[in-house]
Write a sequence for this structure.
């Protein structure tokens, strides 16, 4: 009987140990947004995978390379001038389809602030934010349905959350409540509100009174702000009014990830902490002072060293230092948290100066001055 008890105890210990390994403790780190941390310099390719995609150039496909969606088989891109063109390329950059449904009709978009690709359902979600609706098209450009958005919402930031929902951020200046929600891909209704605790509501915008016109204001915001950031299968959520960045899981669990000090509630002007790119090891963030200049400090938390730094990141495909700005473009998805578009003329110039290496050098050798840009995908390392 004693041996049986010993075996049972050992089995219980093994089971408990396995359970502990499957549920690692979350480590909450605290960053001082006013501190002058030392610099850490990194080569991008040492911690991220990089893929270069030259976009095919034809008379019908003159694309400036504003990237919105990347799937297993296709890429969605537009021009920067909101001319209504939506270009579909394959993953190697071959031109497939050009869609333009810009107009004032019921099945047309007057503008777009976001374009979301659902490759599994072969649908494109065009956020016609000023018309307060999201319009859904198939990959041929055929209209399918409208998702109507409440007039008091301003849903500029959104991502493909799961097969039924989009995850969205409400950027409406008059919002005094919660900012994050899931909305239905079928009708635009709110399926879940994500609750993040805070005291007084804070805004990222700076309003300056127009002294020439009574009651009017100039409104300024940082060039790059991503309150929703895809992180592998999860999302990092930034409530400007809170002192914590949260990780939101597919099962709707909300985990505190990074705390900041001093409290944003105690600062004037406020310093807002925004994530720019998170990996298994590194958390890249920006501390942005809320003034009209929006002066920014690049921050980095190294999970292995358990220390904070200011960061400088360089592209290893150049022979000398070429900085990479990880927050310069909107994240695409959990696999591709950052990207850049590289102008053909710049690459041809750098090729002529002997500044390029590897695959980027090979691509630049084939470009012409009027070629479409090369898309640089900055991807999470494959395990």
């Amino acid at each position: 009987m004693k041996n049986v008890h010993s075996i049972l105890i050992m089995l219980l210990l093994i089971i408990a140990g396995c359970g502990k390994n499957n549920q690692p403790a979350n480590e909450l780190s605290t960053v001082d947004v006013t501190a002058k941390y030392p610099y850490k310099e990194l080569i991008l390719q040492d911690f991220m995978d990089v893929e270069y995609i030259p976009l095919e150039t034809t008379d019908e496909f003159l694309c400036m390379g504003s990237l919105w969606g990347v799937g297993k088989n296709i890429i969605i891109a537009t021009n920067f001038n909101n001319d209504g063109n939506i270009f579909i390329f394959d993953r190697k950059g071959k031109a497939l389809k050009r869609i333009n449904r810009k107009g004032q009709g019921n099945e047309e978009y007057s503008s777009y602030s976001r374009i979301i690709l659902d490759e599994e359902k072969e649908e494109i979600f065009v956020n016609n934010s000023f018309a307060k609706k999201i319009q859904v098209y198939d990959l041929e450009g055929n209209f399918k349905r409208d998702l109507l958005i409440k007039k008091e919402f301003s849903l500029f930031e959104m991502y493909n959350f799961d097969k039924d929902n989009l995850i969205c951020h409400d950027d409406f200046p008059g919002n005094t409540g919660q900012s994050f929600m899931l909305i239905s891909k079928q009708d635009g209704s709110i399926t879940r509100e994500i609750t993040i605790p805070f005291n007084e509501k804070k805004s990222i915008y700076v309003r300056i009174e127009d002294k020439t016109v009574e009651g009017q204001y100039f409104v300024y915001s940082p060039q790059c702000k991503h309150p929703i950031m895809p992180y592998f299968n999860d999302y990092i959520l930034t409530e400007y009014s809170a002192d914590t960045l949260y990780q939101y899981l597919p099962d709707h669990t909300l985990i505190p990830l990074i705390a900041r000090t001093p409290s944003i509630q105690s600062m004037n002007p406020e310093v807002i902490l925004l994530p720019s790119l998170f990996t298994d090891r590194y958390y890249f963030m920006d501390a942005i002072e809320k003034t009209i200049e929006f002066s920014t400090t690049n921050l980095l938390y190294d999970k292995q060293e358990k220390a904070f730094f200011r960061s400088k990141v360089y592209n290893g495909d150049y022979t000398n230092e070429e900085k990479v700005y990880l927050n310069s473009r909107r994240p695409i998805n959990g696999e591709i948290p950052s990207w850049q578009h590289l102008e053909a003329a710049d690459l041809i110039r750098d090729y002529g100066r002997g500044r390029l290496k590897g695959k980027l050098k090979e691509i630049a050798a084939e470009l012409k001055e009027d070629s479409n840009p090369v898309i640089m995908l900055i991807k999470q390392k494959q395990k």
Q: What stands out?
A: The chain has one domain: 23-380.
